[in-house]
Amino acid sequence: MFVRGLATILHADLDSFYASVEQRDDARLRGRPVVVGGGVVLAASYEAKAYGVRTAMNGRQARALCPAAVVVPPRMAAYSEAGAAVFAIFRDTTPEVEGLSIDEAFLEVGGLARIAGTPREIAARLRARVLAEAGLPITVGVARTKFLAKVASGVGKPDGLLVVEPDRELEFLHPLPVERLWGVGAVTAATLHGLGVRTVADVAGLGEAALVSFLGPAAGRHLHALAHGRDTRRVDTHRTRRSIGSQRALGRRPRDPEELDAILAGTVDRLARRLRAPKGGDRDGGTGTGGGRTCRTVVLRLRFGDYARVTRSHTLPVATAHTPTILAAARRLLVAATPEIRERGITLLGLSLTNLDRDDALQLELPLDRQAGPALDSALDAVRRRFGAASVARATQIGRDQGLEVPLLPEHE
């Protein structure tokens, strides 16, 4: 449908999203270094980033780097509302929108030339509309491929517009540091730096065989393709989410096993309700029938006191959306990790449910155990849907801070 030889893919990414919403809503914060979150930095304005403050940094370290920073508590409902407003502008610009997160998306505008102008003109109008209608700065990268569009938006930040013309792709890409390549994290970057590889041009110069020998077949071929500007993926408006998750930053104070178990149980309750919610249903509950999903794999995500991250997973014998079954698997993973948590401390606990499928694909089983059935889940979902998510809670969660749930894209788009 679209001509792949033209730069028609936009990557639109809101700038310091949480912090920008805070500055938009409170004029006293504009132009000042703003940090969202206390124990752990959830977001930092560009004024704070200039001092070295970064997302996921310990709050004490952030305040040491930038004593003048204004620390504000997060307002997740405000961020969800702002993200929804921006996505409405995206979808009014083009029907071809692939959301990546609540503040980031790819847009394909190759079919709009006759009615809306060039991709650069469309991107400029998009930025102006987001600022005028949502009150937020946004950076847009424009390129022939998704990879280059995303790199362009990163280079163009903050509050910029950068177009990578097809005949200048390698001229733009090759001088950039290797960290700009998708898939190059701290470990891979350290490996490449050890080989004297600092720029994308250096990666391209190694050749595919050398990259495969150093990084393995998948990573080596992937980086070789990207370093030469090759990326065949299209903007996918029908991508089905293969996992859902939630995580909670815990700060640095010690947490006993009972407190961690209560946090884990609350996380499972939220995620299981989202699994069962029918298409178009609200996030806090569903009917438990029709249109929901099941999961096969439970993944526990931990960040220790030294900020090292680990994941532990368990695959269930049968796909399910049954809260007690999912919770039992998650608890086994947490208990197995308890000795390491006790030794190293914990600053984040998260859970993901993966290998999702529609609940109508679930093989039915004889109801030999009433505790394994969906009746209780359905009843609790109905109560929460009618009276609110907080109307029913586990006894272990009463009086405890349930933490913050990061706003996400809608489950069904």
Structural write-up:
With 413 residues, the chain is of the alpha+beta class. It has helices at 17-25, 46-49, 59-65, 76-93, 113-116, 119-134, 146-156, 169-173, 186-194, 200-206, 208-215, 217-227, 257-276, 323-344, 375-387, and strands at 9-14, 34-36, 43-44, 70-72, 97-101, 104-108, 138-143, 161-163, 243-249, 293-304, 309-320, 346-354, 357-358. The strands form 3 sheets. A 5-stranded mixed sheet has the order 5-6-1-7-8. A hairpin with a 2-residue loop joins strand 5 and strand 6. The longest helix is centred in the C-terminal third of the chain and has 22 residues, at 323-344. It starts with 8 loop residues before the first strand and ends in a 26-residue tail after the last helix.
Topology:
Elements: E1 9-14, H1 17-25, E2 34-36, E3 43-44, H2 46-49, H3 59-65, E4 70-72, H4 76-93, E5 97-101, E6 104-108, H5 113-116, H6 119-134, E7 138-143, H7 146-156, E8 161-163, H8 169-173, H9 186-194, H10 200-206, H11 208-215, H12 217-227, E9 243-249, H13 257-276, E10 293-304, E11 309-320, H14 323-344, E12 346-354, E13 357-358, H15 375-387
Helix pairs in contact: 4-6, 11-12, 13-14
Keywords:
five-stranded antiparallel sheet; five-stranded mixed sheet; 18% strand; 413 residues; 13 strands; alpha+beta
